[in-house]
Amino acid sequence: MFSRIIAILLLVISTNVIAADQQPEKEQVVKTNATSAQYPPLIERYILDELKSIRQDQQAFRAEVENKVANARLDVSDRAIRYTTDTLNNVFIIITTAASLLVLMGWRSLRDVRSKLNEVVEIKITELTSKYEERLKDLEDKLKRRSQEIIEAQEDISKANEIHSIWMRAGLETNMHQKIKLYDELLAINPTDIEALIYKADAAFELGEYEWAFSLANRAIDQDEDHGLAYWQRACANAANGAVQDAISDIKIAVDKAPKLAEEIEREPAFEPLHELEEFKELLA
């Protein structure tokens, strides 16, 4: 429609431009004026026809839109009615089916239904209660075990801190008697502490208590036969007691259990009585 109006305007403008550009002679001017006088009615008529056509198109478009809207509303109403009908039919089917089931199951009245329902509910509640009681009991047991583990871990941490503190004090202590007391504290906390036994044996050896050192080394070996330092300490006690063959035998076992001890054989003061023995020299080779 708008394209037609634009075409009309362009036609009018082009006519005027052509009339203005022409430079006819006087006779031609007169003829042109006479001809131009005839154009306005024709153009007006053309414009009126186009406007009428546009109005008719608008009316047809409006009628088409109204028709589509009416059809859409009718379709929606039809769907709503069909949905309502289907819903009601389904409800009646469900009611009929439920009633049929009640008849088949022998429930003649709502009282029977209610009693049966109460019975089912009680059974379900009992089952759920038992299940949750078992879960709570398991949870309680787990919490107890976890609490016990936490307490034991705290005790172990406390014990480890105490043992570490005692070892630090023993490392700084220069008095052998005080060192032995500290090692006794360690053994009181952990009687199977082999390191404490060996260091206590070394302290006893430093005090000249060779038999005591020998006994402590034997205790350490009894607890762990693969501990090389325990044989080393017993070898020191045997060398001091004059049991040179036993000392050399213990040195061999100690080096076999802990090869790094071979570097300390020559520097160990306790083995000075053994330096002249051929077997000891073989150990150094």
From TrEMBL:
InterPro entries xrefs: TPR-like_helical_dom_sf (IPR011990), TPR_rpt (IPR019734)
The keyword Ribonucleoprotein is assigned to this record: no
Signal peptide: 1-19
Superkingdom, taxonomy of origin: Bacteria
Residue stretches in coiled coil: 129-163
Transmembrane segments: 87-107
Keywords annotated in UniProt: Coiled coil, Membrane, Signal, Transmembrane, Transmembrane helix
Descriptive protein name: Tetratricopeptide repeat protein
Source organism of this protein record: Kangiella aquimarina
